[in-house]
Structure formats: C-alpha cells, structure tokens
Specification:
This is rRNA methyltransferase 3, mitochondrial. It is built from 14 helices and 14 strands. The protein is an alpha/beta fold. The protein has two domains: 95 residues, 2-Layer Sandwich (60s Ribosomal Protein L30, Chain: A), CATH 3.30.1330.30; 207 residues, Alpha/beta knot. The strands form three sheets. A seven-stranded parallel sheet has the order 10-9-8-13-11-14-12, with helices on both faces. The chain is elongated. 29% of the residues are buried.
C-alpha cells in the first residue's frame, strides 16, 4: 500500500524539461548549410567574390594571395588636447575659511600698515579690474580672498597656479575693505613688478623724462600723476621721503594699473636721487610762484605772466630760522633758477621734472638739485587771481608737453637723415 501511494505522488509531480543535445547540433548544421561563402579561393590563388544576395551591398574583393602583406591598421589620430583654459580643467583647488580663520586678518595686518608692508614686501590689490590689469602686466599674485567662486573663474587659469585661494564670507571682506561698495575679491601681491611702457628714443634724441615727486601727500593726486606718467611714457617715477606710499591701497585704486606700467622707486632720500637719473640730466621744477621770478625777469611784471605768489617758500625751516633777519639776505640765499614758460624747449638734454605737493610745495632740496644740474623753473601761466594748478594737472601738462617736444625733435632728426 505504501508503495502505491509513493508511485501516485511521483506521478503527480511535473517533470523538468530536458534539452536534447542532438536538437542543438541539428539546428547548427542547418544554419551552416544555409550560409553562402563571401569569397572563394581557387587552387591557382585567384579569389572570386560571390554575388551578394538580394538587398545586400557588394563587398570589395580581397587582395590576391601572395601580394604585398596588408599594412597594419593605423589608429585614427585624435586631435591633441588643448591646454586647460577653464578653472575646472586646470584642476585648481581652493580652501574655505573656517570660523575663526586668521589668514585674511594676518594678510590685512601686513598690507594695511606701511612699515609692515615695506618690511614684508607685500601689497594689496582689491577689485576685479585692478587685479586683471596687474595679471595682464605680468605681476605675480601670492594669495586671493574671494566671496564668490565666479570672481576667480573670470581670471586666467594659467596665472593662478601656485596661488593660495581662500573663499571667505563677504562680511569678512567688507570689514577689511576701504571701498564703499566692496567687489568681493582682494589679492596679496609682491610689488616691484612693472613693465617699462616708455619706448626708447632713436638716434640722438633725449630719453623720456623722469618724474620726481616731492612732498606729494594726497593719495588721489599721486595715483592720477602715476597714470599721467605711464600715459606720457616716463622712463621712471621717483618718490622722495615725505610722499605718500605709492603702494597705498588708495593710490593703487587711483592709479588704475599705472603702477605696473612704469617703474617706481619709493621713499628716496634727496642725496640718492642723482643715482637714479641718466648722465647729464637737467632737473627742472614746476613752479608758479612769482616772488622770486620777479627778480629773474625784473623787466616784466609778475601780473603780466599770471604769477601769483602764495609765499609757500617762507615755510622752509631755514627761512623760519632767518625770519627776523634781512629779507634781502633771505632772498639771496634761495637757489637762483632761470624761469621759462613750459612750452619753451626744455628736453634738449635728458630731463627730470619735479612736482611739489599742494600743501608744502617744493622743498629746498629740489631747488638745490635743479640749480646744481642747470635746470630751470617751468612756468604754466594762469590768469590773475588763480593761485596755482592742481599737482596732478600740472604734472600732466608738463609731461605731455615734454613728450610733444621729443616727438617734434625726432621728426626733425628723421627729416635731416633723409637729406643725407
């Protein structure tokens, strides 16, 4: 009875499908019989291509046996990858400032203080336009602090290799910025990188003039003067002691990139100024004070030339000591310089022009240097009642007048050579 029950249970189970190997082999043989050869190689070595079936494209015949061996297939030449042009392709990385991060504050402490700035050789550039001008001129940045990644992506990627990039909060930049509306990016740089924009003169023409700044203490005026010096093609700018620092952030903003277009020598003593001048340079001073010009041109009245004395020379410390002395002796003590209009040729020899500040005017050292080099007082006539021009305006007028005189002389030299 148990055997019958077991047999009935086994009969009720479904059987697993079994694949027959002979069926698979038969199908393969049938498919092989249906295939048509593509080419037929005859005993003579000739290769005959079979006609394609309906709806199939003909295949090209293979080269005959015994012919030249087929060349190995050459891989298609991939176009060479261009150098990375975007910020992402260059693989640049930046850090995010964490709470209490002191990197920005430590840099600002250095660049905001002139003694620290001169000791460490670091300056601050703020704003996308100024930073782009500095990079274009070839200046090398040390670090960038920015609030938005887009500000860094706008800069050339190849210029940012090896530069420390730190993303900070906009409020942190605002706390350290001198701008009313901060632009969200500032950089730490090393000064002393400048391109000489002045073209060398040809032939016997004089080199471009040198600008000497004397007691210029207004950052806006100095920045504007540097722009004029770069535009007029000055060979260099010398800043004597008593001038505002050329790398002060306010001067940098007013200069609009001129710092990187003309060489600047900062914080010079008057004794060292001649070392930075070409040989046989004549130092001229921009002077609109006529109290001593009257002695030079006694036949004409000062009012005829628009000279108005502001008596700033009486502020010299040696004059103060001799204030109770003889006025004639005091006047004779002042260096005796010839006065001429600014548009009379004064670039026949290598020239340097001294621009004084509006508060203290020209220093006694500048007049002594002009006298020792055979320089003159360059007068820009103004109408009666006007004290003097702004220092930046006077510098622009004189520098571009000097450029005009040099170009006129080069034209005469060119015409003289053509006749020879």
């Amino acid at each position: 009875m148990a055997a019958l029950v077991k047999a009935a249970a086994c009969a009720g189970r479904p059987l697993l499908p079994v694949a027959h190997t002979w069926d698979v082999g038969a199908r393969r043989c049938v498919r092989a019989l249906r295939r048509r050869p593509v080419r037929v190689v005859l005993p003579s070595g000739e290769v005959v291509a079979r006609k394609p079936g309906p709806g199939k494209e003909p295949r090209t015949a293979a080269p005959a046996a015994g012919s030249q061996a087929q060349r190995p297939r050459q891989r298609p030449q991939m176009p060479s990858e261009p150098p990375p042009s975007t910020w992402e392709e260059s693989g640049l990385r930046y850090d995010k400032a964490f709470p209490g991060d002191k990197r920005l504050s430590s840099v600002m402490t250095i660049v905001k203080s002139r003694p620290f700035r001169e000791k460490n050789g670091k300056i601050l550039l703020e704003g996308r336009r100024l930073i782009a001008d500095a990079l274009k001129a070839g200046a090398v940045p040390k670090a960038f602090f920015f609030s938005r990644l887009e500000y860094v992506r706008e800069l050339p990627a190849e210029k940012l290799r090896g530069v420390r990039l730190v993303k900070v909060k906009f409020d942190d930049i605002k706390d350290w910025s001198d701008l009313v509306t901060p632009q969200g990016i500032m950089g730490q740089w090393s000064p002393g990188v400048a391109r000489v924009a002045a073209a060398s003169c040809q032939g016997d023409a004089s080199p471009p003039p040198v600008l000497i700044c004397d007691n210029l203490r207004d950052p806006g005026n100095l920045g504007t003067i540097l722009r004029s010096a770069a535009g007029a093609g000055c060979s260099k700018v010398l800043l004597t002691r008593g001038c505002v620092d050329a790398w002060d952030p306010k001067v940098l903003r007013a200069g609009m990139g001129a710092h990187f277009q003309v060489p600047i020598v900062n914080n010079l003593a008057w004794e060292a100024v001649p070392n930075y001048l070409p040989t046989d340079t004549r130092v001229h001073v921009a002077d609109n004070c006529g109290i001593y010009a009257q002695a030079q041109m006694s036949s004409q009245k000062a009012s005829d030339h628009g000279w108005v004395c502001d008596r700033r020379y009486l502020k010299f410390h040696k004059f103060e000591e001799a204030e109770d002395g003889d006025p004639g002796a005091r006047q004779a003590w002042v260096p005796d310089l010839e006065v001429q209009n600014y548009d009379v040729d004064w670039t026949e020899a290598p020239a340097a022009v001294v621009i004084g500040g509006e508060t203290h005017g020209l220093s006694l050292e500048s007049l002594q240097l002009a006298e020792s080099t055979g320089g003159r007082r360059l007068l820009i006539p103004v109408v009666p009642g006007v004290d003097s021009l702004n220092s930046a305006m006077a510098a622009s007028i004189l520098l571009f007048e000097g450029k005009r005189q040099l170009r006129a002389r080069e034209g005469h030299l060119g015409r003289d050579r053509s006749y020879q």
